[in-house]
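User: Sequence in, structure out. Go.
Assistant: Echoing your sequence, followed by the structure tokens.
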Amino acid sequence: MTTLTKNYEKASKLVDRDKAYTPEEAIKLAKQAAYAKFDETVELHLRMGLDPKHADQQLRGIALLPHGLGKTVRILVFAQGEGDRIAREAGADHVGAEDMAKKIEEGWLDFDVAIATPDMMGRVGKLGKILGRRGLMPNPKAGTVVQANDLPRVITDARKGRVEFKLDRTGIVHLPIGKVSFEEQKLQENLNAIVDAILRGRPSGAKGQYVRSAYLTTSMGPGIKLDLKAATASSAAAA
């Protein structure tokens, strides 16, 4: 038996599989159960009452985390002319048009978020096979295709901890809420922001129970079931 397996089994014994924990309890437990030598990511996994095969049941949006994700976000902006100037002044790490597109085609991907102005999407769209599979493709629904004068706000949001969420093909949403090293209160506030965004993003075709189950975990740790009522109670959208 490997050390990794032993550590996981030890961490699993801390979790009562038959209990649904409040967010406060789950966060405390997740921190206690983390055993990796690196700073693990705390993750939220939601099983939704949505069918991804139906267009009116698609779920996609963004959540702004008040305490970020504990990492430096590298931002690329596809813009030209006035948009190029605005993006640079707003602090984007990389700004360009055709030159940036060519670098990406050659294998360069040293960025975490890609933003584009509408006039650039004809060129950026040709990068779909490269950016799409990595979740980096600018998209109007995700708020990453914006007019030049809106670039400062979007860049600032990305710096703070802008997280995109999307329903996957199995009807689940996976999201990071921070790092194990974060204070419990900060993780709680990030979790609240995400739950609020998910509830506000309820698609028009949603029927019945919207969120069916929720689990909190860390990169290497066991899943901890959340009490749905408690998890949504602190959200402004829960009313």
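User: And one key feature?
Assistant: Residues 75-161 form a domain with the Rossmann fold fold (CATH 3.40.50.790).
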